[in-house]
Design a protein that fits this description.
Layout: H1 3-8, E1 14-18, H2 21-24, H3 37-46, E2 51-55, H4 56-63, H5 68-71, E3 74-77, H6 97-103, E4 107-114, H7 119-135, E5 140-146, H8 157-169, E6 174-177, H9 183-192, E7 197-201, H10 208-220, E8 225-228, H11 230-233, H12 238-250
Parallel strand pairs: 1-2, 1-8, 2-3, 3-4, 4-5, 5-6, 6-7, 7-8
Helix pairs in contact: 8-9, 10-12
This protein binds 1,6-di-O-phosphono-beta-D-fructofuranose.
């Protein structure tokens, strides 16, 4: 396990604020308030997140050289695709591990679409990313989402455990995977992940209570926390939801 990953967590637990949806989904995810990255940076700081997840462009303009640089650890998401792309799932790399490191990132993140026709390209890109990141003393986090031509059911317990295992096999320090319905089934994914950390990928809008329950289930299953976006910053009171989440993840 990379010590730098543990450094951004607390007692082996992690609560990340994801804000890469501007690229992944487009501004349809945003209202007039949360479209402003400054607003999200304030939530990341005041909500006591372990780190904020940004694409390079936001990291350059809203983190680097700002007071947040010293206060909120950064994870740079180094690949991404838009929702306009309707082809087979593939998320090209748009920046390097070296650049993320030069920015001051604490970790890099990369999405792999398990079961896509282009899975082989993402495996290959991620393999190099792990090596580059470890050479620089940085952890590599794999978002592993079953998606594409060869995936029948993207949220089955089997494919979720497979997603976690793939991240382990490719050398990731942490996998960010989706919930597969129950504590028991998620526990199987955590088991498949071996020594690697597993966090929940937020998901579609839920009630705060419903979301806390899912996060609790992930922790009960042996998961290490959550990387969440919309369930926080699309809520009516993002700081209140962050506090509730903090209580679930860190017990205070
Ligand atoms: P949410 O909590 O908003 O679901 O964010 C988690 C995340 O993985 C983001 O990092 C990413 O932008 C988004 O989900 C991608 O979601 P999908 O590919 O399933 O539409």
């Amino acid at each position: 396990m990379n010590e730098r990953l543990e450094k951004i967590g607390t007692n082996g637990r992690f609560m990340f604020l994801a804000y890469d949806q501007g690229l992944e989904h487009g501004p349809t995810d945003f209202n007039d308030i949360n479209i402003d990255p400054e607003h999200i940076m304030r939530i990341a700081l005041e909500g006591k997140y372990s780190a904020v997840i940004l694409q390079k462009g936001l990291a350059l303009k809203y983190w680097k050289g700002t007071p947040y640089e010293k206060k909120v650890p950064l994870i740079v998401k180094i690949n991404g695709k838009s929702s306009a792309w309707k082809g087979e799932a593939y998320s090209p790399q748009n920046t390097s591990v070296d650049f993320a490191h030069s920015l001051g990132a604490s970790a890099v993140g990369y999405t792999i679409y398990l079961g896509s026709e282009y899975e082989y390209k993402m495996f290959s890109e991620f393999g190099k990313i792990v090596e580059d990141a470890h050479r620089l003393g940085m952890p590599a986090i794999a978002w592993v989402y079953p998606r594409g031509k060869y995936v029948e059911k993207d949220d089955s317990p089997e494919i979720t455990a497979y997603a976690a295992r793939i991240a382990l096999e490719l050398g990731a320090d942490m996998a960010k995977i989706k919930y597969c319905g129950s504590t028991e089934s998620f526990a199987r994914a955590v088991k498949a992940a071996g020594k690697m950390r597993v966090v929940l990928s937020g998901g579609n809008k839920n009630t705060p209570e419903g979301f806390y329950q899912v996060v609790q289930s992930v922790l009960d299953a042996g998961g290490a926390g959550v990387a969440v976006g919309r369930n926080v910053w699309q809520s009516d009171d993002p700081l209140k939801v962050s506090q509730g989440l903090h209580k679930v993840v860190f017990g205070k």
